[in-house]
């Protein structure tokens, strides 16, 4: 796959990017997002039951992630992007029509399945289409803006949820969420899809041939297993994305612990999402980072998240916003470098393997955070959970100094994270 960005037809690129940004915005314009925990509590669920629902959600993502990626490679990535919001919409409808623990569990299973249909398929389609147009070098920029569009959808949902809840209760929120998903499915139908890049023309070898579901799954797993650069990039995506993805769930508790009134908590969270938005928009500048620069970025994530949390003051959320923004940028860059390393027609499968690894690490972060925060408080739990960023940053720096001494065993796996950052 070529990474050289030649002159491309602007209308073709524009159609792809506008469709992508609209899809990302509508997919996250879900008015149930800010209040679904309240829906569960108002239905009578205990904290333990609500926590078990989160586990079901994460487990569903792990269960469906890789099979759906192989399906996207074997059938149609655009088809899966159309189906994903419809599956998720069914989950939201079940929640508000039959509010109960079994219905919430079914809804999370559907939500997890819908998210898995998107994960892998979206990145693979966007990379393939940009590569077809000779613009694969724009991938990080486009993905960063797409992530920003999703954040704007979340922010819009947060603004609209209160008035809609006051006017029509949870059923109105559910109806609005289902409508947003239906619109996202309609937008997804506009995605272009061409499965073969010009760079692969005439190269009908076994690796690049169109494969069935099972063969796509085997090819994707084999690529991660046998190609150290791809495996290292998958691990990097998982490590970088998992920690801040899990910590986001605990930011309301951290905000409350600073002593602010309940009505101020959403404002502090809004500051964090503003940081995430800036991080996504900085992707073009971030593409210039190499080994030391990327290590410094991860170090900034660790220091900002830990320092902001341990401040135990509302002002600390400024540091947290910096940390979340840097984490968003690091995630976009890691994903772009993963896509640059994948070859063959099982791109969505490999990307889904990275998503599954991320989900596994998120669950581990939930467990670790719960243990530490129960014993020492949310601030300490937050700071400890940010530690892996500093560890990876130090490994990347140490690796540059010891290139001449080959590592062995587990040290080699970590040291290989990843060559493309050097």
What does this structure look like?
- The protein has two domains: 9-195, MFS general substrate transporter like domains (Growth Hormone, Chain: A); 220-422, Up-down Bundle (Growth Hormone, Chain: A), CATH 1.20.1250.
- Helix content is 77%, strand content 0%.
- It has helices at 10-28, 36-42, 47-74, 77-97, 101-118, 121-132, 139-188, 213-226, 228-247, 251-257, 265-281, 283-286, 291-310, 316-341, 347-376, 378-385, 387-401, 409-415.
- It starts with 9 loop residues before the first helix and ends in a 7-residue tail after the last helix.
- 50% of the residues are buried.
Helix content: over 70%
Please state the average pLDDT score.
Answer: 81
Work out the radius of gyration.
21 Å
How many DSSP-defined strands? 0
CATH class designation of the largest domain: Mainly Alpha
Apparent shape: globular
* Helix and strand run: HHHHHHHHHHHHHHHHHH
| Cα distance spanning the termini | 20 Å
CATH superfamily of the largest domain: MFS general substrate transporter like domains
CATH topology of the largest domain: Growth Hormone, Chain: A
What is the topological layout?
Blueprint: H1 10-28, H2 36-42, H3 47-74, H4 77-97, H5 101-118, H6 121-132, H7 139-188, H8 213-226, H9 228-247, H10 251-257, H11 265-281, H12 283-286, H13 291-310, H14 316-341, H15 347-376, H16 378-385, H17 387-401, H18 409-415
Helix pairs in contact: 1-7, 3-4, 3-5, 3-8, 3-15, 4-5, 4-6, 4-7, 6-15, 7-11, 7-14, 8-9, 8-15, 9-14, 9-15, 10-11, 11-14, 13-14, 13-16, 13-17, 15-16
């Amino acid at each position: 796959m070529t990474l050289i960005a030649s002159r491309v037809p602007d209308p073709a690129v524009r159609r792809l990017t506008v469709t992508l940004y609209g899809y990302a915005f509508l997919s996250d314009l879900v008015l149930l997002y800010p209040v679904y925990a309240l829906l569960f509590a108002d239905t009578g669920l205990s904290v333990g039951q609500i926590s078990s629902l989160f586990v079901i959600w994460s487990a569903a993502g792990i269960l469906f992630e890789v099979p759906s990626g192989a399906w996207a490679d074997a059938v149609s990535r655009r088809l899966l992007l159309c189906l994903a919001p419809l599956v998720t919409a069914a989950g939201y409808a079940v929640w508000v029509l039959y509010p109960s623990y079994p219905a919430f569990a079914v809804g999370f299973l559907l939500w997890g399945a819908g998210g898995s249909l998107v994960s892998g398929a979206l990145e693979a389609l966007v990379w393939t289409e940009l590569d077809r147009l000779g613009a694969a070098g724009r991938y990080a920029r486009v993905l960063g803006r797409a992530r920003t569009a999703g954040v704007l959808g979340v922010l819009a949902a947060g603004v609209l949820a209160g008035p809609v809840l006051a006017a029509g209760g949870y059923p109105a929120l559910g109806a609005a969420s289902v409508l947003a998903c239906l619109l996202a499915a309609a937008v997804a139908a506009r995605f272009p899809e061409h499965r073969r890049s010009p760079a692969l023309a005439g190269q009908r070898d076994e690796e690049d041939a169109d494969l069935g579901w099972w063969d796509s799954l085997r090819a994707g797993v084999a690529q991660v297993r046998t190609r150290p650069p791809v495996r290292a990039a998958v691990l990097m995506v998982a490590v970088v994305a998992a920690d801040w993805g899990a910590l986001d769930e605990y930011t309301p508790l951290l905000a409350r612990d600073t002593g602010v009134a309940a009505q101020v908590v959403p404002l502090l969270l809004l500051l964090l999402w503003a940081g995430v938005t800036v991080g996504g928009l900085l992707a073009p500048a971030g593409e210039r980072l190499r080994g030391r620069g990327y290590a410094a970025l991860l170090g900034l994530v660790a220091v900002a998240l830990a320092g902001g949390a341990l401040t135990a003051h509302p002002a600390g959320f400024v540091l947290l916003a910096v940390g979340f923004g840097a984490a968003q940028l690091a995630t976009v860059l890691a994903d772009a470098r993963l896509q640059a390393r994948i070859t063959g027609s099982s791109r969505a499968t490999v990307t889904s393997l990275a998503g599954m690894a991320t989900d596994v690490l998120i669950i581990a972060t939930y467990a670790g955070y719960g243990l530490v925060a129960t014993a020492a408080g949310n601030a300490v739990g937050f700071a400890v959970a940010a530690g892996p960023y500093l560890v990876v940053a130090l490994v990347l720096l140490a690796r540059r100094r010891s290139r001449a001494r080959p590592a062995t065993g587990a040290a080699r796996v970590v040291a290989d994270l990843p060559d493309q950052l050097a």
